[in-house]
Specification:
With 58 residues, this protein is mostly helical. The chain is rod-shaped and about 75 Å long.
């Protein structure tokens, strides 16, 4: 491999690695938030039903 292309690969590799890690971390945060919100909405709906209140309008 030409030394030029070797230098290009080695200089881009850290950026790509950090980008991939950032992507997976952000994806997990968004998924956790979505799961937490749906669980909270379910608990709130159960509590409203237990108290005889109408369902919350979306």
């Amino acid at each position: 491999m030409d030394p030029y292309w070797s230098a290009v690969v080695w200089s881009l590799l850290p950026t790509l690695a950090v980008s991939v890690i950032f992507f997976f971390v952000m994806r997990s945060i968004v998924r956790i938030d979505r799961k937490e919100r749906s669980t909270y909405a379910q608990i709130e709906a159960e509590e409203r039903a237990a108290r005889g209140m109408p369902p919350k309008a979306s």
